[in-house]
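Our consortium's second objective concerns turning raw sequence data into structural hypotheses that experimental partners can test. To show how far this objective has progressed, the report includes one record in full. It was chosen at random from the queue rather than selected for favorable results. The single chain below, 204 residues long, was entered without modification.
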Amino acid sequence: MRLKTLFIVAALGAATALAGCSTGGTIFTSEYGAKKDSGYQLPQIPINKVPRQYHRQIVKYDTSEKPGTIIVDTSDKFLYFVMGDGKAMRYGIGVGREGFEWNGTARIAMKREWPTWTPPAAMIGRQPELAKWRGGQPGGLSNPLGARALYLFNKGGDTGYRLHGTPEWNSIGKAMSSGCIRMINQDVIDLYERADVGAKVIVK
């Protein structure tokens, strides 16, 4: 009987290790495999090349904001989806490079799957080769907005900023974008399913 008990304890310990418990919960390192989505074949992410802190995970997170709120920490490159009970789902993100940073409070006005990307006129001015997409680049695996986009509006209307996927998984944890918040496609799909239109978004 004692041997059986020891076996069960060892098995539970191994399962916990595989689940990848972190500060307050589970790390979803196994969730970055290839997957079909709306007719597209998302490639597997070489997640071992992404620093572990940027893997999707449930963490302890104390905040007075209500569940469903999204809090973006641009300095640490984390996005938190508040879950309540002192916990949040945390995702690694890429943020705006120097000169393109932004912060403030907004709300999700729209959500789109495999969205069209239309480069702003100012971006086309900096990168004339993007002029071919002046009328919009259709959604797809090479589209800069990735698999999902959540559109941020404030009292003044469309901020021009998005929470969106990216095919450039190696930009996560870095300041490389033109101001939008980038996420690994598998992560933005997960966030898209959790976040409601009208949800509060705090970028700091």
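The partners drew two points from this record. The two ends are 56 Å apart (CA to CA). The domain at 31-203 is CATH 2.40.440.10 (L,D-transpeptidase catalytic domain-like). Both points have been shared with the crystallography group to help prioritize constructs.
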